């Protein structure tokens, strides 16, 4: 390892459904970075897609443990996220998942194979989604301001991960070596 090899400590923030998981996996694929997590707490948070740090004390604790170099904030309009998150419908008996936008059932609200009604998980119901998004905003606003003051916050705004990704990619290219120089900006 030469002296130039350096660990980039990046935090990815964004509301539930903003595309953090997709962006994280693309970063891992395109750059010589591992999707690192500080212990199981963070891994659990990442698997549940809840995002960490979510509160100012968490952000400060993370800073004491690791010097955070950059914070990538995915800023996706709430309406877009709400549509994304409420688009999921499930056939309870089989576990088949439909998405109104990407993978809709042939008939609205009906399972393709059995003709049985589809249900929406409580988590995916509009009122629950709105509550989660509002809670996220209230909780993380101080975190974003904290990182803004430290000069490490980079916000990427848009409605689609595929449109936001090239900007995240270009930004990270200035910070880290790529795994694969031929890997272009394609998802």
Automatic annotation (TrEMBL):
InterPro entries registered for this protein in UniProt: Adenylat/UMP-CMP_kin (IPR000850), Adenylate_kinase_lid-dom (IPR007862), ADK_active_lid_dom_sf (IPR036193), P-loop_NTPase (IPR027417)
Pfam families in alphabetical order: ADK, ADK_lid
GO molecular function terms attached to this record: AMP kinase activity; ATP binding
Domain Adenylate kinase active site lid: 88-123
Top-rank taxon: Eukaryota
Keyword field contains Ribosomal protein: no
The keyword Kinase appears for this protein: yes
Keyword list, A-Z: Kinase, Nucleotide-binding, Transferase
Family membership: Belongs to the adenylate kinase family.
Protein name, UniProt field: GTP:AMP phosphotransferase AK3, mitochondrial isoform X3
Species for this entry: Neomonachus schauinslandi
């Amino acid at each position: 390892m030469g002296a130039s090899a350096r660990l980039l400590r990046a935090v990815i923030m964004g509301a539930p459904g903003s595309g953090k998981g997709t962006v994280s996996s693309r970063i891992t694929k395109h750059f010589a970075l591992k999707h690192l997590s500080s212990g199981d707490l963070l891994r659990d948070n990442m698997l549940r897609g809840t995002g960490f740090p979510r509160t100012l004390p968490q952000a400060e604790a993370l800073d004491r443990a690791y010097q955070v170099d950059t914070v990538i904030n995915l800023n996706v309009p709430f309406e877009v996220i709400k549509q994304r998150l409420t688009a999921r419908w499930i056939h309870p008996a089989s576990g088949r998942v439909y998405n109104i936008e990407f993978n809709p059932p042939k008939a609205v609200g009906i399972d393709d194979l059995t003709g049985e009604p589809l249900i929406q998980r409580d988590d995916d119901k509009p009122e629950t989604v709105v509550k989660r998004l509002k809670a996220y905003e209230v909780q993380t606003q101080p975190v974003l301001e904290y990182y803004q003051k430290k000069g490490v916050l980079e916000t990427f705004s848009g409605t689609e991960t595929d449109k936001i990704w090239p900007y995240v990619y270009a930004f990270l290219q200035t910070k880290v070596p790529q795994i694969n120089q031929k890997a272009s900006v394609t998802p």
